[in-house]
Amino acid sequence: MILSLLLMLQEAPQDEINIEVVGRKLAAISATVSKGADGKLGCALSESSGYAKLDGQLCRTATACVRQGARDSAAVKACIDKRKPALLADFKRNWRAGQ
Asked: Is this prediction's pTM over 0.70?
């Protein structure tokens, strides 16, 4: 079984493996949105994806969800989870473009 996994990894393009790893990380990340004393929304991630731009997009998505009416943690999570595939697709496009 390990041999077949190693063979599969050798055959898969390295870019695809990296994107798959980022996708798994992204799926596991949760965001917390809070309102500061100044009224501005802030975001904290449970962990980093390893890519600052992707982390920033995830936080902007989380705060947009709150602005659009998500009020409890379940609603915010559902809103973010709905957007994660598009974030990953954008990351994939940028990765392949070399950005």
From this structure: yes
